[in-house]
TrEMBL record:
InterPro entries: Acyl_CoA_acyltransferase (IPR016181), GNAT_dom (IPR000182), N-acetyltransferase (IPR051531). Pfam families: Acetyltransf_3. The lineage of its organism: Bacteria, Pseudomonadati, Pseudomonadota, Alphaproteobacteria, Sphingomonadales. This is GNAT family N-acetyltransferase. PROSITE patterns: GNAT. Residues 11-165 form the N-acetyltransferase domain.
Amino acid sequence: MPAPTLTTARLMLRQLREDDAAALFPVLSDPEVMVWWSSGPHRSLQETADYLVFNAAEGQGHICWAITAGDDVALGWVILIDRKPDVKEVGYILHRGQWGKGIAREAVARVVDYGFGELKLRRIFADTDPENPGSIGLLERLGFQREGRLRGEWETHIGVRDSLIFGLLRDEWRERAGSENTETT
């Protein structure tokens, strides 16, 4: 199924498309952005275009949204990957020039809200490298709890890496959303 368009105060999340390659090549070719990714920095626009074929495709067991700031230019993406009934894994990547602005948090929070609300998921989880403080901080700020460490889980361009697993349950998300609404009223 195509990703439904989701909006936030600052962002529009829309279906990732193959023609996003030119906008995303600077992201996927940046060594600092890609250090914790499962593959190394892209060396050509064609490599990015080939990479997006799968991520942008429908019916592959995932939903992938391009993160845009309303001008339709992809700054990164958020993906929900099927893992088992009512459980999905969330993943995300964002242009380094957009780090520290709350964009990833806003985009991932909107996708998590969609997952628990519209898709009726019971659990969403993420895995991240133990040395990736930005991703760990993002997940913790959203209420994900560290559930475990998988030793030697990934073989990547920087070697064999452990993975930290963070999980969030629907009731935890709802409780958190309720308490945030209570605090602001």
